[in-house]
Amino acid sequence: MPSVTASDIVLMKVGGGSLTGDAYYSLGAPLIGSLEELFPAVQPAQASSGYTDYACAVICNYASGTDGSFVGGRIYFSSQTSSPKTSIQVAVSGEANVTGGEFPFSVREAAPYELGLTFSSPSSIASAIELGNIDSGNFTLLYFKRIIEAGAMALNPDICTFVITNAVS
């Protein structure tokens, strides 16, 4: 029976880049465990007054064969942002393990319109958010929320790291 390897599971940023002309809205190269490429730099005006923005990403399962399901996936942050006045939260779409269609995200400053999203900042595998099973060739949507408190530093990049795993402990 084929097994899923780490290289089969790829996280890619998503959005409407062709509609907005903003590279941070586009489906891009795989993100390697860091949100440095998912959010643009914190701008001075955002740092001064505070700001919240959102980003969408997909976890794709590129395993081959019908037995290549990513079972029991989880996500958590191994470190929060490099600024003490910014934080990242994540929510998993209720439309998990899908095969295609529109990505429901268009405006960076507006919360995703999907109902029932619960954003949190799990910091260990014990508190990790469950991703559900992702069959070969399918994906699951993730939404990220960046909260910049007033008085934060304008950083480029403002990095946090996360872990996607199917380990139980």
Please characterize this protein's 3D structure:
The chain is mainly beta and 169 residues long. The protein has one domain. Helix content is 6%, strand content 34%. The strands form two sheets. Strands 2-1-3-7-5 form a five-stranded antiparallel β-sheet. A three-stranded antiparallel β-sheet has the order 6-4-8, with no helix packed on it. The radius of gyration is 16 Å and the shape is elongated. About 8% of the residues have low confidence.
How many strands appear in the DSSP assignment?
Answer: 8
SS-derived structural category: mainly beta
* SS strand fraction: 25-35%
Alpha carbon gap, first and last residue: 24 Å
Uncertain residue ranges: 16-21, 23-30
Relevant terms:
169 residues; five-stranded antiparallel sheet; 2 helices
What is this entry, summarized?
With 169 residues, the chain is mainly beta. Helix content is 6%, strand content 34%.
